[in-house]
Amino acid sequence: MSQLTHYTTNFEKRRFPITLVSDQVSNAPNIGSLFRICDAFGVEKIVFCGENIPVFGRKMTKTSRATEKVVPFEIQEDIHPVISKLKEEGYTIISLEITEKSQSVHTLDFSKFEKIALVIGDENFGINPETIYESDVVTHIDMYGQNSSMNVVQATNIVLYEITKQYLAN
């Protein structure tokens, strides 16, 4: 059995009605990894919200492996107009955050949403409370150890996997 390369895999290229909204994620390697996983999961677009987001630079491009060239993206300073616009366009705003009322990613039926804007938060502080309030749904990943959080990219991977898995099943 031989290992396949980027050029010899037979994965079907697809785009899903998912926009990733990044609320103050500012670590360059994390941004590069977000590009890479958004390409892998067929995300239609990334919106980076905040100031001084390092979308270009050696640290980001080293991690992205050129996927910033194929995943559409934009940068906006303020997340709130972005959320409002996405709602007007028919997106369901789903924030990835642990709250008193968040639903487990394992129990949420993502396939019932026609278009999803997945909001992820700052590496240290998560999603700002105003954005959580503006969200239609808040979801979390069940965790079984002592820690109550994981890296924003790892968490995004898990949720994008679940969303695309459910879209493909329906």
Q: Can you walk me through this structure?
A:
With 170 residues, the protein is of the alpha/beta class. The protein contains five helices and seven strands; from the N terminus they run βαβαβαβββαβα. A seven-stranded parallel β-sheet has the order 3-2-1-6-4-7-5. Helix 1 runs parallel beside helix 2 and helix 1 packs parallel to helix 5. The radius of gyration is 16 Å and the shape is globular.
Summarize the structure.
Helix content is 32%, strand content 21%. The protein has helices spanning 28-40, 58-64, 79-88, 129-134, 152-169, and strands at 16-23, 43-49, 73-76, 92-96, 103-104, 116-121, 137-140.
Quaternary structure:
single chain
Task: Please give the CATH architecture.
Answer: 3-Layer(aba) Sandwich
Radius of gyration: 16 Å
Give the spatial strand order of the biggest sheet.
Answer: 3-2-1-6-4-7-5
Map the helices and strands.
Elements: E1 16-23, H1 28-40, E2 43-49, H2 58-64, E3 73-76, H3 79-88, E4 92-96, E5 103-104, E6 116-121, H4 129-134, E7 137-140, H5 152-169
Parallel strand pairs: 1-2, 1-6, 2-3, 4-6, 4-7, 5-7
Helix pairs in contact: 1-2, 1-5
